[in-house]
Amino acid sequence: MLLAGKTALVTGGAQGIGKEIVMKFLAEGASIHYCDLSEGPSRDEMDAAATDGATVTFHQANITDETEVKDLIKSITGSGPLHILVNNAGITRDGMVFRMGLDQWESVLKVNLTGAFLVSREVSAFMAMKQKSGCIINMASVVGQMGNAGQTNYSASKAGLIGFTKSLAKEVAKRNVRVNAVAPGFIETAMTDKLSDEVKADYAAAIPLGRMGSPEDVANTVLYLSSDLASYVTGQVLRVDGGLVM
Known about the structure:
Blueprint: E1 7-11, H1 16-27, E2 31-36, H2 43-49, E3 56-60, H3 66-77, E4 84-87, H4 102-131, E5 134-139, H5 143-146, H6 152-172, E6 177-184, H7 190-193, H8 197-205, H9 215-226, E7 237-240
Parallel strand pairs: 1-2, 1-4, 2-3, 4-5, 5-6, 6-7
Helix pairs in contact: 1-9, 3-4, 4-6
């Protein structure tokens, strides 16, 4: 197993891509801490997926609250090592920019970018200064590289996260901490389930591989970057998009 004996924290881990990452990590032997605003419906499924004595622990936390983030990371690192952080939590509040309210803009930046900063700040300090090893993976998006009409707020947050990833990677590399980003393309999630079949077909037609991705496609990539297979990979943005951006 690729993550046997490792401990990981996944933000936004109760559903969607975050849940898939938790399940993948558990199957590969990792013990998991995951945080979200609520526990979600999948806890029994997660417990059943744990292997070889691995554990899964839920933490209710708002990653935009500095005090809650500090308390969360202190509670996790106070009981042992933390080898992997996946900053997966994120939201969308789409709309054309000329109709976008300030709250619509700021709320997306606050969760997607500031939240990742707050968690990474506490975790990277522990990994770099105390543990002197670790791995951080930030969930970006191809729209942070190519843009997308109706998503100026989301695109800006993900573009910012890419710059944050590269800068943090340079800061902590000498302390044996790796920092990378994953940039999914069009992935089949609860959000895309709401789209019409016609819109889904249009999306698939724009993808060279001819299909939308699955949460497992993303989780497999996160697993690779989290494992020793990627021990010489840092500061990179790995797209999981079926060739949408080339």
